[in-house]
């Protein structure tokens, strides 16, 4: 397996180019930082008593007025930027991963079945997909949020925001998987080996998952990597449109939304620290995705 | 074939009804339209009377039935915010969004497909690595940040391009176009590029993945062995075979373009449907939101139908199946 | 950078040359965040609409640059003799923009239109019992009680031409559909509507037949709504627009630092405050208070006030642009209580003491509701306040929502503490008393924005006396007593007066009025 890693397309790229090597290292650090945020960060941005407004708007340590205590400065509330982005990336990654997994399971499952069975089932699934596509992500988020608000008592609303956002993002993404899986399944289903398996009376689930799925993994993996990244970006965009997470439990998207207010004010770090961290995180995920795709795609070996 | 199209059109009515139903069920979560329609000094009873007049106190299903009933009779209602006919408001905004979306899509295809082919054929070249990394960074920046950065670079710092709006427009029939004036094109460049970046990268990565896959398949290896010239091989055999998934995604992309145009339009103050929709969310303008979503659903249905028809045109095996 | 600089200066040179040859045409382009949603002055009682339409339509009276009332379509007015109310002597020789004459009939028609059920401004006429046309240029407004402030309260009551409205089927404001007055306008004011593309672009041109002398020189004015504040600022800095309001506080430095641009700053009359659920049986967002509402105890409310460090909020959140507030109107508004101009000092120790006295030595948690798109930096303010509350043991669970969801939640009593901004529409201290301090009374239309239902019998008694008192000194004594009560009981925690920040090119002269109305007749392009 290790040897496979070493000789893979992705790793070949890593070995050859120092830039890619650095990217790999950054990827590792960013993701590790996000995952282990509670153990690394110096302060907890969720704990209101741990920061003070009097420390607000401090620049990074290398600029005049910066303090060693806050190496990348503080935001408009006096929160340490480093702690904020580590916790923020953690939350963004969590939301992105969960949304991507939900979207993949839902989308691939429905897409495979639609492509396999065709006919009425296919038509129903695809029309549901059309309905989903016609609802912009912002509205899906509003819908899920609204339902949660209607169903749950008011004091729980704050607690379910993450789940609401995750579900909304997942619902905005599953159609890509479904349509791609379905299209590829159509093609695969007519191939001899699938026809043979079907004639031999194998269970449809077995045909779908054992025979068809591995052969359509290529495009699906591309979409998975792109979609994990876009799930994280979608979270940021929903925040920009004002329906993301509340400012006191910030994801990277929320931090960027807050930072946008300081785009021109001279406090550049409030925007650019989380933005650069987001870029690093998303680029890392994409690189990692490319790499994994090459490793796990049997046809490339 | 005709039967197929008719069947799809019939199904599309279901889609639009479902969208209308879903959107109606969520409107009460968007906010309270009456609070947004009235001033600070309006009394409680006046608010209640307005609510009654607008039919907001009626049962949900009744409101939905009234909305769809009116819609089927061609009555799109009046905006709560501006009191104008909704049909006219949306129709005024459609050209701006379609022109923006189409130009963005064309940019993404014109650049994305050749870049995808190139990077697939030269997977390890320096240019390929640069292209891949640049586009990767490009899609890793949220659209709204890209938009604002472009505005400040080209609009404020360099002063080359306008920062907002559509520039000069020309009226052709009922269609307001910005494609026939220099000012219009200047205003179009930044938003179209902003909107197209994500689609461009997706197209390129997809074409590249498919090309690489196909290039390793048996029949290409056979063809190489038979001595078919590589140019013909790449474009006639390989590229053609990548087209099914690519067309799927591109079809989907048009939907994505329309959906994403909400953000782009808001950043560039582009007077399209997305901007109208955001404004109507802000004012809880239920009639405008409802019609917008139904119109968007209609676009999606059309695009998906076109995609499916293209499949049949491209892949003969599907044609046989549909005929059967 | 050099290239950019060169390009920019060439572009500027081009503009200068153009300006030199065409000195007559002074086109003025401006932007704001919200498009006026209608051109009908009686359909929506909202600041963006009334501000815009005050350029086209006029009222009987108008406000000057210093917010004082001055004659407009009424040349003079006096109290009626023998009954309550006012007589307005109308200006003669005024014509509407379509050429028809302005008479008392138009005022009568406009009154009927604006006080009809379809109007959103009818509350202005709640005290009016009868309107009588005396002659062609005299009209009487009879009120149910002495009403010294009536002329001030109708500065935004704009007059339509009865003939024009009747000819175009716009006798009533449009409610659920549009009518002619939604997109067309015909006023007596300094500017005429020349084209309108709602949400995109609205163009105005001067009205040559205006009765008064314009102090500006604008010959064409183009308005564009730009919702995104960064885009708006970019449009100003790139020279595509001449003026924008408002700009974000934090961008003031950026605009001031650039050649050719200026920032116009002032105090708005809007006071930002926190309100409490005075009547709630229990806190909604608290687990440990168990069916009690600590905020019913004035000591707890005072503790919350002492927990807030206004200096820190001013410095970090509001960039040193605010005036701390002691009461519900800012200093300078008529009726401001000089006797009660102190606000509770920042004193966390005192706050903890008060909480302990009230039986909450460890504090408690509660829900704080805020807007995130209504007031300047409202969300940042609430976050800062939450962490200051936390420092004394008041653990605020903050929910910030867009304003479109906000009022609905407040009306449904879904809060323990909430944020509110209030601008006195009449520019008098009586206004917030009527809306925010008087007990809720739907019948009498009082206390309609008193969401937490603060209620004090003496306050309710004082309000009608204040409304009817004609002697200023006696009136002020009554107001002082009322303000003292509201401070002692901490009915609200007034925080500060919101700043007004506009930005323009250096060559634009304009006047900023404290009600945030933008008057084109005071604009000069130099």
UniProtKB/TrEMBL annotation, chain A:
Lineage: superkingdom: Bacteria
Chief site of localization: membrane
GO CC, any one term: plasma membrane
Keyword check for Transmembrane helix: yes
Membrane topology classification: Multi-pass membrane protein
Compartment list: Cell membrane
Bilayer-spanning residue ranges: 20-41, 91-117, 129-148, 160-177, 216-243, 269-289
A GO biological process held by the record: transmembrane transport
Keywords, sorted A to Z: Cell membrane, Membrane, Transmembrane, Transmembrane helix, Transport
InterPro entries linked to this entry: BP-dependent_transpt_permease, MetI-like, MetI-like_sf, OppC_N
Residues in ABC transmembrane type-1 domain copies: 89-289
Assigned protein family: Belongs to the binding-protein-dependent transport system permease family.
Protein name: Peptide/nickel transport system permease protein
Biological classification of the source: Bacteria, Pseudomonadati, Pseudomonadota, Alphaproteobacteria, Rhodobacterales
TrEMBL record, chain B:
Entries under InterPro entries matching the protein: BPD_transp_1_N (IPR045621), MetI-like (IPR000515), MetI-like_sf (IPR035906)
Pfam families in the record: BPD_transp_1, BPD_transp_1_N
Keyword Transmembrane: yes
GO cellular component: plasma membrane
PROSITE patterns: ABC_TM1
Main location, first listed in the record: membrane
Keywords: Cell membrane, Membrane, Transmembrane, Transmembrane helix, Transport
CDD domains assigned to the protein according to its UniProt record, in alphabetical order: TM_PBP2
GO biological process annotation, one example: transmembrane transport
UniProt entry tagged with the keyword Repressor: no
Domain of life: Bacteria
Spans through the membrane: 12-30, 100-121, 133-156, 185-207, 238-263, 283-311
Record's bilayer topology term: Multi-pass membrane protein
Domain ABC transmembrane type-1 stretches: 94-311
Subcellular location: Cell membrane
Family classification: Belongs to the binding-protein-dependent transport system permease family.
Protein name: Peptide/nickel transport system permease protein
Naturally occurring in which organism (per UniProt): Pontivivens marinum
Automatic annotation (TrEMBL), chain C:
Any single GO BP term: peptide transport
Limits of the Solute-binding protein family domain: 69-441
Main location: periplasm
Stored Gene3D superfamilies: Dipeptide-binding Protein, Domain 3, Periplasmic binding protein-like II
Keywords: Signal, Transport
Keyword Signal: yes
Molecular function, one GO term: peptide transmembrane transporter activity
Superkingdom field: Bacteria
Localization per Swiss-Prot or TrEMBL: Periplasm
Matching PANTHER family: OLIGOPEPTIDE-BINDING PROTEIN APPA, PERIPLASMIC BINDING COMPONENT OF ABC TRANSPORTER
Protein family per UniProt: Belongs to the bacterial solute-binding protein 5 family.
Protein name (record): Peptide/nickel transport system substrate-binding protein
Species of origin: Pontivivens marinum
């Amino acid at each position: 397996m290790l040897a496979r890693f070493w000789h893979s397309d992705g790793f070949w790229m890593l070995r050859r180019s120092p830039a890619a090597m650095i990217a790999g290292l950054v990827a590792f650090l960013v993701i590790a930082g996000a995952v282990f945020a509670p153990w690394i960060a110096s302060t907890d941005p969720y704990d209101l008593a741990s920061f003070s407004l009097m420390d607000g708007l401090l620049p990074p340590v290398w600029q005049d007025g910066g303090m060693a205590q806050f190496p990348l400065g503080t935001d408009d509330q006096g929160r340490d930027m480093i702690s904020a982005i580590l916790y923020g990336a953690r939350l963004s990654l969590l939301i992105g991963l969960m949304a991507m997994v939900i979207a993949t399971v839902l989308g691939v499952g429905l897409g495979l079945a639609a492509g396999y069975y065709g006919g009425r089932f296919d038509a129903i699934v695809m029309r549901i997909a059309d309905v989903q596509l016609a609802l912009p992500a912002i509205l899906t988020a509003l819908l899920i949020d609204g339902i949660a608000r209607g169903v749950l008592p008011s004091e729980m609303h704050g607690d379910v925001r993450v789940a609401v956002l995750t579900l909304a993002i997942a619902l905005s993404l599953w159609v890509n998987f479904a349509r791609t899986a379905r299209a590829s399944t159509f093609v695969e289903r007519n191939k001899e080996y699938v026809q043979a398996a079907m004639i031999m009376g194998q269970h449809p689930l077995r045909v779908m998952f054992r025979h068809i799925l591995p052969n359509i993994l290529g495009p699906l993996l591309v979409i998975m990597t792109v979609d994990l990244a876009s799930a994280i970006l979608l979270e940021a965009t929903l925040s920009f449109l004002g329906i993301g997470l509340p400012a006191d439990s910030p994801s990277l998207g929320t931090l960027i939304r807050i930072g946008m207010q300081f785009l021109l004010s001279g406090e550049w770090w409030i925007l650019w620290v989380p933005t650069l961290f987001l870029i690093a995180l998303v680029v890392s995920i994409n690189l990692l995705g490319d790499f994994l795709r090459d490793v796990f795609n049997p046809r490339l070996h | 074939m005709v039967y197929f199209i008719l069947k799809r059109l019939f199904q599309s009515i279901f889609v639009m009804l479902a969208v209308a139903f879903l959107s109606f069920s969520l409107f009460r979560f968007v906010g309270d339209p009456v609070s947004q329609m009235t001033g600070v000094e309006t009394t409680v009873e006046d608010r209640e009377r307005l609510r009654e007049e607008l039919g907001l106190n009626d049962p949900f299903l009744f409101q939905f039935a009234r909305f769809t009933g009116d819609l089927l009779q061609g009555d799109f209602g009046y905006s709560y915010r501006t009191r104008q006919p909704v049909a006219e408001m949306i129709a005024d905004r459609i050209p701006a969004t379609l022109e923006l979306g189409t130009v963005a899509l064309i940019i993404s295809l014109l650049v994305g497909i050749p870049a995808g082919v190139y990077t697939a054929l030269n997977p390890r070249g320096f240019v390929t690595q640069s292209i891949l990394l640049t586009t990767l960074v490009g899609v890793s920046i949220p659209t709204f940040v890209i938009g604002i950065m472009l505005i400040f670079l080209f609009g404020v710092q360099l002063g080359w391009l306008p920062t907002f709006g559509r520039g000069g427009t020309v009226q052709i029939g009922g269609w307001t176009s910005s494609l026939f004036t220099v000012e219009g094109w200047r205003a179009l460049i930044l938003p179209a590029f902003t909107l197209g970046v994500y689609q461009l990268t997706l197209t390129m990565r997809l074409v590249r993945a498919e090309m690489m896959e196909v290039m390793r398949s048996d029949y290409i290896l056979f063809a190489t062995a038979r001595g078919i010239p590589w140019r013909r091989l790449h474009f006639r055999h390989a590229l053609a075979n990548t087209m099914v998934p690519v067309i799927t995604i591109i079809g989907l992309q048009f939907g994505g373009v329309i959906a994403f145009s909400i953000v782009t339009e808001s950043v560039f103050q582009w007077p399209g449907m997305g901007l109208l929709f955001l404004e109507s969310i802000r004012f809880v303008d239920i009639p405008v939101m409802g019609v917008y979503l139904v119109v968007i659903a209609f676009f999606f249905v059309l695009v998906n139908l076109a995609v499916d028809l293209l499949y049949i045109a491209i892949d003969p095996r599907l044609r046989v199946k549909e005929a059967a | 950078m050099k290239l950019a600089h060169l390009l920019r200066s060439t572009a500027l040179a081009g503009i200068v040359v153009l300006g030199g040859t065409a000195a007559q045409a002074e086109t003025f382009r401006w932007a704001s965040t919200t498009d006026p949603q209608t051109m009908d002055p009686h359909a929506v009682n909202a600041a963006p609409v009334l501000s815009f339409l005050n350029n086209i339509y006029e009222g009987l009276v108008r406000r000057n640059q210093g917010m004082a009332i001055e004659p407009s379509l009424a040349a003079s007015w006096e109290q009626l003799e023998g009954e309550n109310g006012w007589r307005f002597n109308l200006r003669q020789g005024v014509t509407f923009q379509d050429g028809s004459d302005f008479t008392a009939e138009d005022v009568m028609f406009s009154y009927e239109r604006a006080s009809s059920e379809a109007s959103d401004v009818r509350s202005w006429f709640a005290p009016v019992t009868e309107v009588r046309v005396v002659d062609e240029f005299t009209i009487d407004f009879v009120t149910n009680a002495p009403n010294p402030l009536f002329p001030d309260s109708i500065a935004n009551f704009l007059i339509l031409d009865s003939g024009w409205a009747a000819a175009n089927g716009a006798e009533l404001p449009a409610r659920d559909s549009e009518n002619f007055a939604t997109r067309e306008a015909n006023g007596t004011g300094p500017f005429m509507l020349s084209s309108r593309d709602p949400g995109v672009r609205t163009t105005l041109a001067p009205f040559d037949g205006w009765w008064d002398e314009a102090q500006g020189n604008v010959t064409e004015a183009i308005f564009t709504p730009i919702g995104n504040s960064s885009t708006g600022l970019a449009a100003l800095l790139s020279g595509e627009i001449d003026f924008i309001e408002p700009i974000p506080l934090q961008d003031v430095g950026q605009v001031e630092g650039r050649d050719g641009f200026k920032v116009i700053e002032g105090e708005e009359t809007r006071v930002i405050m926190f309100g409490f659920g005075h009547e709630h049986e229990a806190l909604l967002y608290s687990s440990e208070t168990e069916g009690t509402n600590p905020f019913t105890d004035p000591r707890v409310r005072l503790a919350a006030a002492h927990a807030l460090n206004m200096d820190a909020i001013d410095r970090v959140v509001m960039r040193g642009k605010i005036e701390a507030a002691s009461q519900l109107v800012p200093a300078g508004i008529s009726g401001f209580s000089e006797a009660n101009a102190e606000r509770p000092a920042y004193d966390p120790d005192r706050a903890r003491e008060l909480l302990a006295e009230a039986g909450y030595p460890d504090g408690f948690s509660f829900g704080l509701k805020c807007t995130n798109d209504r007031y300047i930096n409202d969300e940042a303010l609430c976050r800062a306040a939450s962490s200051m509350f936390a420092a004394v043991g008041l653990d605020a669970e903050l929910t910030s929502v867009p304003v479109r969801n906000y009022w609905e939640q407040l009306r449904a009593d879904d809060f323990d503490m909430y944020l509110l901004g209030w601008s006195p529409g009449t520019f008098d201290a009586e206004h917030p008393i009527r809306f925010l301090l008087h007990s809720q009374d739907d019948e009498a239309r009082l206390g309609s924005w008193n969401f937490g239902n603060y209620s004090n019998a003496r306050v309710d008694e004082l309000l009608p006396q204040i409304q009817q008192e004609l002697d200023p000194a006696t009136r002020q004594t009554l107001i002082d007593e009322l303000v003292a009560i509201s401070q002692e009981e901490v009915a609200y925690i007034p925080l500060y007066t919101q700043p007004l920040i506009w930005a323009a090119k250096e060559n634009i002269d304009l006047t900023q009025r404290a009600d945030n109305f933008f008057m084109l007749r005071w604009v000069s392009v130099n």
